[in-house]
Design brief:
Order of helices and strands: HEHHEH
Number of helices: 4
Distance between the termini: 40 Å
Radius of gyration: 24 Å
Structural class: mainly alpha
Oligomer: single chain
Strand order of the largest sheet: 1-2
Largest sheet: 2 strands, antiparallel
Number of strands: 2
Length: 98
């Protein structure tokens, strides 16, 4: 194993360590991330259910083509997590704010 100088360790720390800058308590993510994912999935299920309810009844060839395009044309909502900032970028932003 190669020994690292303190300066190299500091650079690696700035690159690899992360800081939460989302604006909420860092422990709140434990509850809020699953809650946000569930809300998105619930909205997608609701939209699919509404489309299926609208599609019931007699089949008309003209309206069925429009309904099919409507079903396929919508993109479902998606959930993406935002990564935390690296320590180096966090300190740069903090020093600019001073």
């Amino acid at each position: 194993m190669m020994r690292r100088s303190p300066q190299e360790k500091k650079q690696l720390s700035y690159a690899n360590d992360r800081r939460n800058t989302y604006g909420e308590n860092d422990k709140a993510s434990r509850k809020n991330l699953p809650r946000k994912r569930a809300r998105v999935h619930r909205a997608n299920r609701h939209r699919a259910h509404q489309d299926l309810l609208a599609a019931t009844g007699l089949v008309d060839t003209e309206t069925s083509d429009v309904a099919e395009l409507r079903l396929r044309g919508r993109r479902p909502k998606e959930f993406r997590k935002q990564p935390d900032l690296s320590l180096g970028e966090y300190l740069r932003r903090k020093s600019r704010a001073r």
